Amino acid sequence: MTDSASNAGYSDEVDSLFERYESRNPAGIHAPWVHLFPEAPARILDIGAGTGRDAAWFASLGHSVLAVEPTDALREGAAKLHPEPEIEWLDDILPAIPKVMARGETYDLILMHAVWMHLTEAERADGMANLAQLLLSGGRIAMSQRHGPIPKGRRMFEISGEETIALAAQHGLTNLYHERAESIQAENRANQIEWTKLVFEKT
Description:
CATH architecture: 3-Layer(aba) Sandwich
Strand order of the largest sheet: 3-2-1-4-5-7-6
Oligomer: single chain
Structural class: alpha/beta
Largest sheet: 7 strands, mixed
Radius of gyration: 16 Å
Mean pLDDT: 92
């Protein structure tokens, strides 16, 4: 899938993304909310899976992962870098994620790291409805939203945690975790970039 508005810019910096993303320890990144993740073995849907770093981490813990990434160069490179049999790669994109929806499967955990802020308000409304359908009862969504200057060539929107919590509630998703904090990366902190982490549960 070529870049659409929501994933614009990512194909132009694939090499640097692999270098940056793969250099960071996923266990450290997810430490604040990992206690809310399911025990293995669970079925994980990683939307906007990027370089496959998180998908590979989940696989190493005993989970099976459907890794969804619309940027061809990222997805193809990730599949080569992380060939674990527990990871299945799929070319699809929010909000409709038609290929995911067509599978008729449900998941214990949906991860969306640095994805949600790329969607318009209308896309977020449609996307949340689809995400809720993909969760098992008691399943959870973990998402992070970026705040700060928008990189050149990207499309991003400023979204508060409270706005996302209100939208999720309309679809039977209860907020379990909400934290906004500065980036753990020095370069991002210098640029006043912050992140909101949210976890929701389907009741």
